[in-house]
Amino acid sequence: NDTTLAGRIAVVTGASSGIGEATAKQLAARGAKVALLARRADRLQTLAAEIEKTGGTAFALAVDVTDADTVRAAAEQIEQEFGTVDLLVNNAGVMLPAPVEELRTDQWQRQIDLNITGLMNVVGAFVPQLVTAGAERGVADLVNVSSIAAKNIFRNFAVYSATKAYVTQLSRHLRAELGEKHVRVSAIEPGMTHSELHGHVTDQGVQEWTAGIHDIMLHSEDIAETIVFTASLPPRVNLQQVTIMPTGQP
Ligand code: NDP
């Protein structure tokens, strides 16, 4: 498979760390122009400079994806600066597991706001460009980062898992809706992966469980490789769902 992405115009949300950062680097290394979205402007600037230094093209935009107006404005700016987006990696997410009886309603809401509403804001802002790009170049990609938690049961992960089940199911429906318009839709479902995601967890039981499987976890680069592969396939091929597990994770 030829994984050159020269000429592609990509957007990665959650590009300031972990899977998003690794994906942005690999897309740029394959020749895509990459718009980097997240809240931490300093981290995005550093990443953009690093990509530019190695001959790539990147554009940093400090955006909170839970704010629909800001996301829409960013989509317009990217179109003007780079051209029509043909590869969207909808990756920003947060994981805050805790026993439901603790009623951490603040954490429930943060996960729903980002993993569902934020993801939808990004879909809404960029789908028109993806459809235009699909018609013009024969294929465009909408890659949503879901999780193995969309289907596997992990103790105390109810709200997070439900947000990811939403992402996987949404992706299946959007694929059926947009495929005939030459927009491929994929859900990527990673198992446990090294990133900053686990640093936000406040529940001690989950922290201990994570520490126990630290050594077998995937690297963010492994997920990035899979996203690059997905977007590099011939236009007729759409990986609908890709589950990537650490070899040692049951
Ligand atoms: P990180 O915490 O390293 O990355 C999360 C990214 O989301 C950061 O770049 C963060 O940047 C960004 N983000 C958070 N809130 C917002 C917001 N309101 N607006 C815009 N960007 C935001 O974790 P991962 O790389 O692991 O997570 C990426 C995706 O992978 C998530 O959807 C996660 O659910 C999924 N995933 C991760 C797994 C793992 O084990 N790591 C397993 C399965 C799925 P900033 O704070 O600068 O805004």
Task: Give me some keywords for this one.
single chain, 250 residues, alpha/beta, Rossmann fold, seven-stranded parallel beta sheet, 7 strands, globular, binds NADPH dihydro-nicotinamide-adenine-dinucleotide phosphate, NAD(P)-bd_dom_sf, NADP-dependent 3-hydroxy acid dehydrogenase YdfG, oxidoreductase activity, acting on the CH-OH group of donors, NAD or NADP as acceptor, KR_dom
Tell me what the structure shows.
The protein is α/β, with parallel strands linked by helices. The chain has a single domain (9-244), classed as NAD(P)-binding Rossmann-like Domain (Rossmann fold), CATH 3.40.50.720. The protein has helices at residues 18-29, 41-53, 68-82, 105-137, 158-178, 204-212, 220-232; strands at residues 9-13, 33-38, 57-62, 87-90, 140-145, 183-190, 241-244. Strand 4, helix 4 (105-137) and strand 5 form a beta-alpha-beta unit. The relative contact order is 0.15. NADPH dihydro-nicotinamide-adenine-dinucleotide phosphate binds next to helix 1 and helix 4.
- H/E series: EHEHEHEHEHEHHE
In what order do the strands lie side by side in the largest sheet? Answer: 3-2-1-4-5-6-7
The helix content is 40-55%
Radius of gyration: 17 Å
How would you name the CATH homologous superfamily?
Answer: NAD(P)-binding Rossmann-like Domain
Strand fraction equals: 15-25%
**Are there runs of 5+ residues with pLDDT below 50, and where?**
none
**The level-1 CATH class:** Alpha Beta
| Average pLDDT | 97
Bound molecules: NADPH dihydro-nicotinamide-adenine-dinucleotide phosphate
Largest sheet: 7 strands, parallel
Shape: globular
Structural class by secondary-structure content = alpha/beta
Number of domain units: 1
By DSSP, the count of extended strands is: 7
